[in-house]
Design brief:
Helix 7 crosses helix 8 and helix 10 runs parallel beside helix 11. Helices cover about 35% and strands about 20% of the residues. Strand 8 and strand 9 form a beta hairpin. By secondary structure, it is an alpha/beta fold. The chain contains 12 helices and 18 strands. Strands 10, 11, 12, 15, 16 and 17 form a 6-stranded parallel β-sheet that branches.
């Protein structure tokens, strides 16, 4: 009898131990899952209520149905930032957070408020930047961005300028060279040609080149009456703005001819006049070797004059662009060079070059810009060209 009782007591003890262990394990599992016995036993428990709230929130969420990201430019320099224009529909979308990615990982970053910043090692890359919704709508949009090297004001730089274009047959090949080398230049377009070939002007702008006006039809501005002067400049400004969406801020007067009246009109139209400090005389030599040699004499701060309408200049550009870069020169736009040197390009003023000390006009004021050099007519023909005869005058005259 006593043995039987003892046996049952042993079983009872074991059972109690097992129950205690199971309760302990059950309690631990409950803590790990964040639920309680009340949640399981009561239909009105907080666990089921939380699940119900989540379901209700999901039912009340408003997904994004349309997403767009606008970039103010298709190019940027290292060291700059870009504010993106992000828009979505409907405006009352519940979750507007976006996930950003780059075709080459780590080369750009985008903040929550849409500010894009290129990485220090991103220069000379063209990347695709993608924004994707995170609300389950699975929408995305992508844009391309060209990243140029950061400008170092302490290092030498020159501004290559091209007059009289565009001519698609030559200008586009010259643009190819600058594009391949991640270099920039300034193109002073004739309004007539900008009207004939707006796609080429648009390409200049989208690649990050600076687009200025060379007037409408290459007339010598110092010989025009007041209304003629106004129209000759204004028509070209309108043609360039139509092609690029942006009005130019720089003007290259034909033949370099300038006086007080021309500067006054330029000021009215928000334009700064820019001539040159190094004339390649490409229009006269008509030889790629001579043009190349002349460009390679450029020094820090020079504004170099060429013309993008001549086929022989394509070969010269193909050679001097990489060679100048190899010598340590930064090829920048006119506005970039002046900004890097802390100098301004105010409307109604005339400029020739910039350098770390002071700006000075070239020793000679003889015009180096070719006469009547239109890239073509509406039918695509090329106008006859004459040597320069007009002397550039100064604003003091």
């Amino acid at each position: 009898m006593k043995k039987g009782v003892m046996k049952y007591l042993q079983y009872a003890v074991v059972l109690v131990i097992v129950v205690v262990l199971l309760c302990g394990i059950f309690s631990i599992l409950k803590r790990l899952t964040g639920t309680s016995s009340t949640d399981d036993l009561s239909t009105g428990g907080s666990g089921q209520q939380s699940e119900k709230n989540i379901e209700e929130e999901a039912d009340n969420s408003v997904p994004i149905t349309d997403l767009s990201v606008g970039a103010p430019a298709t190019n940027i320099r290292v060291g700059e930032t870009m504010q993106l224009d992000i828009s979505y529909e409907p405006k009352n979308a519940t979750n507007t957070k976006l996930e950003w990615s780059c075709s080459e990982e780590g080369l750009v970053s985008v903040s929550e408020d849409g500010v894009l910043t290129p990485a220090e090692n991103s220069a000379k890359h063209t990347v695709e930047v993608t924004a994707k919704t995170t609300d389950g709508s699975d929408l995305s949009t992508t844009f391309e961005l060209r990243i140029y090297p950061e400008i170092d004001p302490s290092k030498p730089m020159v501004a290559i300028t091209m007059d009289d274009g565009p001519n698609p047959d030559t200008t586009n090949k010259i643009l190819d060279v600058f594009e391949d080398n991640y270099a920039k230049a300034t193109f002073f377009c004739l309004g007539e040609n900008a009207g004939y070939y707006p796609e080429t002007v648009q390409r200049e702008y989208e690649l990050g080149m600076e687009v200025g006006t060379h007037t409408q039809s290459h007339k010598q501005l110092t010989t025009l009456s007041g209304s003629e002067l106004t129209n000759e400049i204004q028509e070209s400004v309108d043609a360039i703005k139509k092609a690029t969406g942006v009005a130019p801020i720089l003007m290259r007067p034909p033949y370099g001819a300038i006086n007080k009246e021309v500067l006054a009109e330029a000021k009215k139209q928000g334009l700064c006049a820019v001539n040159w400090s190094l004339d390649t005389e490409d229009w006269k030599t008509k030889n790629a070797d001579d043009t190349y040699k002349m460009v390679m004499t450029a020094t820090d701060g020079d504004v170099v004059l060429l013309h993008d309408i001549h086929e022989y200049n394509i070969n010269a550009v193909e050679r001097f662009v990489p060679d100048l870069i190899a010598e340590g020169y930064q090829l920048v736009t006119v506005s970039e060079m002046y900004a890097a040197r802390g100098e301004t390009l105010d409307p109604g003023t005339i400029h020739y070059r910039t350098d770390p000390t002071t700006e000075a006009a070239p020793e000679t004021t003889a015009a180096g810009d070719e006469d009547g050099a239109a890239a073509g007519t509406a039918s695509g023909s090329t106008a006859d060209e004459d040597d320069d005869t007009a002397a550039a005058t100064t604003a003091a005259e």
